[in-house]
Amino acid sequence: MPAAAKSPPTEKPVPAPAPGTGPSAVQRALRKLGLLRDIDFALYLPMRYEDETRLVRLADTRDGEMAQIEAVVTECEVVYRPRRQLIVTVDDGSDTCQLRFFNFYPSQQKQLAVGARVRVRGEVRGGFVGRQMMHPAVKAVGTALPEALTPVYSTIAGLAQPVLRREVRSGLARAVLDETLPPGAASHGMWDLRRSLNFLHYPAPDVAIATLEDHSHPAWQRLKADELLAQQLSQLQARRVRAAQRAPVLEVDSNGGKLHGDLLGALPFALTGAQQRVGEEITRDLAREVPMHRLLQGDVGSGKTVVAALAAARCIDAGFQCALMAPTEILAAQHFGKLVGWLDPLLAGRGLRVAWLTGSQKKKERDEMTAAVESGEAALVVGTHAVISEKVRFRRLALAVIDEQHRFGVAQRLALRGKAGDDVEPHLLMMSATPIPRTLAMSYYADLDVSTLDELPPGRTPIVTKLVADHRRDEVVDRIRAQLEQGRQVYWVCPLIEESEAVDLRNATETRDELAEALGEQVGVGLLHSRMPTAEKQSVMEDFTANRLQVLVSTTVIEVGVDVPNASLMVIEHAERFGLSQLHQLRGRVGRGAAASACVLLYAPNEGGRVGEAARARLKAMAETSDGFEIARRDLEIRGPGEFLGARQSGAPLLRFADLTNDALLLDWARELAPEMLDRHPDLAARHVDRWLGSKAEYLKA
Ligand code: ADP
Ligand code: MG
């Protein structure tokens, strides 16, 4: 292994074009593919290969096989029946083959003139008119046969395969590929990186292609190992940074935990075992000097809000302030309503209160709230991200709770920094109803502790989920009537048409009118959509909560976290267009009270009379299980880990090569190596992370 160079070479981006010239179309396309630095090109691996290394005799080819031959053109003509096409016959001495081209250029016709000797590559079909190839690739003879398989890269419009191939080849040649693993660290028969990359871009023709395609080849193993190591290193670094930070120590008994105890006593229910356990975990964290960084995951309806309220009470008991943020105003308002109900009566006697902060607030109210936050009178501040806006200064912030954390970006989490004071960080409690499978959580959030509410409050009846084809809508309306007769309420979620909010709105409005007509005058049918002014949204929500409206038709603004226990039926129209976790979240709006609840997934086949494969898998999962963890597992299966975490928005680096389910051994290896490497070879570690994550490494620190 080469010794570490004195001044480590760092990766530089490809130089920007001279001013005034602007990037060329090719450069723009490369950039779109994320190909900026030499190393990016080197790590841009083929999706498949073509074997252009060998020539075969036509007589030896078999039906359905890819073959490359060299032969002489004996016939070449354009025919017009059944449609315009170029038909060429070639003969290689062993046999003949017919080549057919439907779209062709005059230059191709010229290249394939009678008597020309050509190299042809394509799939051989042995029909009964003899051998045929449709649209084969044609090359001039005479160029030497390549020694390696030819890589085929995934590309986009405006970037032709040969151009991309050339760019990758030269990027690979320029890239600095010195060893970054510490001496003796490689295992599993790992190859070194340079050899692995050269091989994967240009594999020897005798390799078993299957080992390349299933990524089990040692060259692949090396890449996956490196990638996982980079991830572990950067997370470990992040964890160490956090460990060096200080947070306010929230002693359990600095005033006897009075508010906490009072709140427990005032709740109309007893905590579940899971809530108690998680509450204790949080209490322990808050009493430490290291900032808490905990993810509270629990299925919809598992009762995360109470846990947050109790944590807030601990914080207030210690004489500090707590902030609670939700991604949308409706959700924040629901939290606020609940927390005010629970806490305000208890806070009033202490001269404290719960404050409300949101972007749409009137200035006067906002100023008043901000002042209460600054004076410390607002012991708990609930709102949207307005809570962490620059203008809001806390007197003694110690705990920040983020609901539906996956919908907040890194920037927002970073904005919390410094809100607690100069040298201290707030404790952080993130909540999510999208359970993350353990392996994923461990590898993406190595510096995050995870608490799980794995128990629903008692007395819930399971939700029955039914798939119903759209042409049976009338039966669904009957179902709604039956629920209304029992005094229950109903949600109707309208289809998701991403391109056009206007169309969404029209659909929703029509549906509302239809339902209002079908259900009769005495039934209140409300409408909720994203274009409505906040105040109006709020008042519709209030009317629904108070049962002044019995049916709520909404576009997808209907919020995760909305809590109306009397609602017992959820209808989701065009359910095939929704993501699995979204369906699960929506379904979680019902089944919150004691009444038996149901969820109807209306689906409409597309023009072909079918529902796509992934959509079918999602609907099937919904019908088969209501366990959030099982749903998450299936979602992961259907979508893959990258999308699952919404990583694109949050900026978390995706694993491009490694796969957490199948590469558990490599993950173990990386997890074991990371701490030692960071301690004993910090420069190698830094270069390794830079090589793999580049600027993305920053995100992991948030
Ligand atoms: P989520 O985890 O989805 O945010 P919520 O916190 O909104 O769930 O709780 C769902 C409902 O269950 C709320 O009405 C809440 O008051 C109620 N709840 C929470 N904990 C309990 C409990 N231990 N016993 C009974 N009801 C509970
Ligand atoms: Mg919630």
From TrEMBL:
Keyword presence, GTP-binding: no
Sequence ranges assigned to domain Helicase C-terminal in this UniProt record: 486-637
Region annotation (Disordered) ranges: 1-23
EC number from the UniProt entry: 5.6.2.4
Keywords: ATP-binding, DNA damage, DNA recombination, DNA repair, DNA-binding, Helicase, Hydrolase, Isomerase, Nucleotide-binding
CDD domains cross-referenced by the UniProt entry: DEXHc_RecG, RecG_wedge_OBF
The organism's place on the tree of life at top rank: Bacteria
Single GO term (MF): DNA helicase activity
Pro residues bias spans: 10-20
Family matches, as Pfam families: DEAD, Helicase_C, RecG_dom3_C, RecG_wedge
Main EC class the enzyme belongs to: isomerase
Segments forming domain Helicase ATP-binding: 285-453
NCBIfam families found in the cross-reference section: PRK10917.1-1, PRK10917.1-4, PRK10917.2-2, recG
Recorded family membership: Belongs to the helicase family. RecG subfamily.
Task performed by this protein: Plays a critical role in recombination and DNA repair. Helps process Holliday junction intermediates to mature products by catalyzing branch migration. Has replication fork regression activity, unwinds stalled or blocked replication forks to make a HJ that can be resolved. Has a DNA unwinding activity characteristic of a DNA helicase with 3'-5' polarity.
Protein name: ATP-dependent DNA helicase RecG
Lineage: Bacteria, Pseudomonadati, Pseudomonadota, Betaproteobacteria, Burkholderiales
